[in-house]
Model the fold of this input.
Amino acid sequence: MQEQKYDVIIVGAGPAGIFAALELSRNSDLRVAIFDKGPPIEKRRCPAREGEGCIHCQPCSIMTGWGGAGAFSDGKLTLSPASGGHLSELMDGQRTQALIDEVDRTYVAYGAPQVVYGGRTDEFEALEKKAVLAGLRLVSVPIRHIGTERCSEIMTRMYEDLTGRGVDVYMRTPVTRVLVNGGAVFGIETEDGAVVKSPWVIAAPGREGAEWLTQVGAELGLHLTCNPVDLGVRVELPATVAESVTQLLYEFKCLYYSRAFDDLVRTFCVCPYGEVTLEYAGGVTTVNGHSYADRRTANTNFALLVSKSFTEPFDDPVAYGQSIARLANLLSGGVLVQRLGDLEAGRRTNVKRLSRSIVIPTLKNATPGDLGLVLPYRHIVNILEMMHALDQLMPGVCSRHTLLYGVEVKFYSNRLQLTPDLETEVTGLYACGDGAGITRGLVQASASGLVAARAILRS
Done:
């Protein structure tokens, strides 16, 4: 590394960091550098996605590298402040929507499709009535779907633009410390001991970097708030079961409060005609889903997540989620899959029973097993209640052949105390994206990068 000083350093090459760099490079001649522990996008290869099985890459190629987790997500752009993060808690809704609209235009300019799903229509209102009768809240948000293969193409174009404007990018360069003196940031230290100075640092480590940012916050004495931990399963069923809803909304967003415990259960990351995939982060293997733009499977999958908050004396929801995931890994060697009928009957799914299922699993290396030995009883009761509620909206969800994969965990649990401009208690240190606990998806993560960059430009 020849240059040891920059005007702005960005830690994390995911959507938040990329959009911060786009804004800075378009509107100033500031010297900007991006640091990320993952590989360049052309080097990001996931053996699990290619049928070879997860080999626990360090770091995970699905979660880290240029484009962050967004590069290999299925690219759903949620175009409303009502879903995808907490930016509207830090600023007014009008400002948040304006940022979302700007982010959307940028993605379209880089190659996102024109089609937008959702919105309030007569068909949606009919679905909404069915949902209410089932005890569900159906949230209407417009969604643009990019597709997994197109996401990486868009992120590649952004990389080419940024490097063409003089932004320096250091991949495979983990940052270990954020350097502070007298209450103000003055740079970073990388894993190899290099000190790079800058009066402004944007910490945008992504969901996989949430634990790193928590450690940085603790080292600097920053105040942290624990977000709820989201833990649950990924559901896979025939695409025809959900077709009446996914063709209208693409991604249905349903909220449910369980009768047994009054816990919030929500649908997340619906993947019509998609496939179930693996992730490796924080030392554990978890499950996720993707949909492609140009190819389809016979199945649709989505997550059911139970949100739980913790109070004193426990204050580490990330560790809680990791411990549940480790138990699933211990029993299965990776991810468990179980038929809904077997879970409700209190028996393990084995290879023979799985072979009789009419739902052919798209994740071929999941191990048949018993989620009842992994998930807390409370979570299982909540998930089963939600499944039966969804069955009233989409008959067939509760087929005994429906597959449940476990576990799915979202590690964005600690949230720094931030100003509306996303500045931390350290002058010149900003935090944005999923890793900061303020966003939960591509659009609001990207928008948060704009917020931090514009605050620096004003300075």
Summary: The radius of gyration is 21 Å. The chain has a mean pLDDT of 91. The longest strand covers residues 229-238.
